[in-house]
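Researcher: Structure for this, please.
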Amino acid sequence: MADRFELPAKVALRGLDHEGVSVWVHGAEQLGAGRLARLIRYVGARGAVLDPTALAGAVRDGGVHRELLAGLARRGATANAAVRGILVDEARRGCDALLGVYEARRGQDGFVSVPVPGDVLTGVATPAAHLKVLWTEVGRPNLLLRLPACENGLDVARACLAHGIGVHIDQVGSASQYAQVLRVCAEGLELARQSGVPLGMVASVAAMDLAAVDAEVERELTALGASGAVARRQRGRVAVAQARLAFRVHDEWHGGASWSALRAAGALPQRLMWTVSGTPVPVGIPTGTGKPPPDVAGPSGDLGAAGPRSPVSYVERLVGWNTVVAMTAPDLAALGKARLRGDGLLGAHTEAERVMTELADLGVRYGVLARRLASRQLTRLLFSWRELHTAVATHLDPGDRARRRH
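Model: Predicted structure, token format:
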């Protein structure tokens, strides 16, 4: 049963579940299979999101990957092959832990989101074919492949859906970009339907990183020297406003003709996810290549940009049916303090539009800001993959480990 530390979070997650909100654990690879299983069974976590930064920390720490890496080193595996092996291992363990949730929810929850390796996005001629091999290698129905919402990432997402591979599209920075995501996913599902793929087995999730949005707005307001009551009022409000506008887009699209045709063919509705925690950076574990450059790091200098609003506060304001919240285990534990006020999304677009108008009056061009944030996030993602490769290569080369100790 849940212990006295887990019980308040369990009560909060039960309340969110009644409102149609699922909570997924972000950075689950740092927990180990036993801790993740506890969060699923006793607290009510409904999914897991793997992260290359957290994965790099888990590799440096040894732990569950020590034997796997030792075996790969004996076989002379390359760093690329070893990273793939770790991804497959993590994905299988997470999917197995969540399979009961997936089956109980009839394929609409219980997923593990695995990030697509950076080299697949930037250096492979046929990324969808490579990802189909990865999907087959994991061999679990509750796997989602995570791709950034950049042009290349959306092209790959469309191809994955056409092959019947579920996707998690990350780093959606605005409601207008989310409309583009919906169009791309609809195109992919239509291609799948034409190929005879059963659409009821193809899930998709689109995620907005709320902490990163608010941190970027904070950075912009500081650069502009904005002050006064209106500027102060923007703190922690813009990400919530964009989330509410995105939900409006989601609601309208799922009431339209394009979705009606896909639904008739058995398609699952897309789910919106709010990422409310910063990137799960391991504490006390040194990075392999030093800190990222200032334009890649968040305002604190870390890879994970923390916004001015607490993760729990985001959750309280963005309760909505068929949505997902992704948060780290420590933030999940803090959910016991949440004061749920019912639905915070339906009919909230008018106030959200007012927030965006006030932001524009302060001189912030949100479209420009969102594109800059997307570029920063993609650079940060590729940096995280390099960190993971460095950590893995160090384990594969004992001589390199010895040199680093001296």
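Researcher: Any notable elements?
Model: Residues 281-290, 292-307, 400-406 have pLDDT under 50 and may be disordered. The CA atoms of residues 148 and 170 lie 5 Å apart.
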